[in-house]
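ok trying again, last paste got cut off:
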Amino acid sequence: MPLKPDDIRKMSPEERRKELMKLRSALMRMVTRKERGALKEVGKVKHIKRDIARILTIMREYGEI
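nice, full thing came through this time. structure:
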């Protein structure tokens, strides 16, 4: 389930950084599996990218980047 902007805003800056790192590592694993042809749910890559973008946008709003 995608992260909602309100939920991201309620997180502390440290929680946002941890979530961002977790999503980035998940994206790397999924892209690798996709390239090998082992990933069946290709749409999840798109959702993870959007969640990363949402977190980065909100981090910029709060001046964390």
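cool. The mean pLDDT is 95. The chain has one domain: 5-61.
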